[in-house]
Predict the 3D structure of the following.
Amino acid sequence: MPEIINMPRLSDTMEEGTVAKWFVKVGDMVKEGDILAEIETDKATMEFEAFHEGELLYIGIKEGETAIVDSLLAIIGEKNEDISNYINGNSKEVKVENSIETATEKPNEDVEVIIKTQTNFEVVNMPRLSDTMEEGTVAKWFINVGDIVKEGDILAEIETDKATMEFESFYSGHLLYIGVDEGKTAKVDTVLAIIGDKEVNVEQVLASLKKSNTDEIEVSIPEAKIEEVKPKLETDKHSEQAKNNKVLSSTENNKRIFVSPLAKKIAFEKGISLSKINGSGDNGRIIKRDIENYTDNSKEKESSFSFGEESFEEFPNSQMRKTIAKRLSESKFSAPHYYLGVEFNMDNLISFRIQHNNSIDSKISFNDIIIKATAKALRIHPEVNAKWSDDKIVQYKHVHIGVAVAVDEGLVVPVVKYANEISLLSIGQSVKDLASRARSKKLIPTEMEGSTFTISNLGMFGISEFTSIINQPNSAILSVGAIVQKPIVKDGKIVVGNTMKITLACDHRVVDGATGSAFLSTLRNFIENPVGILL
């Protein structure tokens, strides 16, 4: 009897999981204790091991897919064991049969859509590359329709709400169809591509997928005509080149122009005449870079003699920008924000940093010290290191500090784990590494998850005072301003001192005014007497 493996509950709050990676494939022999897959939960990515021995007969949740706890994850059993009853009872698969018959529908009944074909193919959907990803943008395709794809080849770069990631193929065959063009955005599980034998009738496959109307499949059909991949003919190089690269031909002033669909779209949006452009693609084909690099010299000459010309430029919202807008709006309008502002004397901390950096080769920043001081204060005040849910307030005993980092397209918040327990040098190295990889979009999702509190520092940009929107599910965020030299009163005398303004934004459902004030008082003690940070 086969062993049914369901999506496990790997944490007390886990409701669904995402399969980050499979370490085995259907047909492999599995031993008890072998690692089957990496599963991403709401808290971490964990290895999930097998508790049974046998052959892996079925995978119910593919890499990148998300399913609720107890969904069918896999089946392990004896070789060639019949598992059809288990699959039919637990999944909504599109069945592929070796036949050329036509699927029929019965009125007023649930219709099982069967794709009839004589060849093999695989439908590749837009993957879920992070736990918060709802849609993705294809930043770049590395292959064209007609190319041969091997398992492990990089298909495309996909921009998510957090980063741009390379997406590799899990199948081998010809790339028969591209469902989402470069620069286009589509929801998770939209048809991204079809890979298979070159004899596959792509139009029939797409029609069958669209007809099935299941929860698992969403088909996005571009306006450009879908072309079958056929054997190359030496006698018709232009025609074949057009097919393999989805070339469109346009006619301007009785001149035939070969242009890719994306290039034609960009040219239309920018109001550029294709007849003015020399294509750099094969056989003079106009491609995306030709449009982007085109400069209209006549317009430059004309504009040099004009004054007060109104103009604007539009930039499509990236996935990151859309997600930032959504999350901050949800936070601002769901959590009742209030703000507590204080001003700290920074003279002792400045001296502390100078002494520290003079005695050790590795340097630390003011931000590193503030992170450490904040983490120690949060450990003393767990009421601030907390989150709200409808039926309870969770107070964390560990301290994971989210550090806001500005990138070209917005803001990301990588997390320094256990900031109250690690040294100042470790915090400095961690922040430097995370910030560098955040700006180059090399962070992985787990490095941006799990924060219990967030710090946003604009002091380095000369901003003396500001407020921030809470990074949910945190209940507070600290806004750190610049160190300013100014007259202060010390021992009854006016002297030149260094001060820094800090603002604590609190979710009033969790952090009351007195609670937030007590936290800031403890933080003041660590900042103005920094030796306590090392104790």
Remarks:
- The first helix runs from residue 84 to 90.
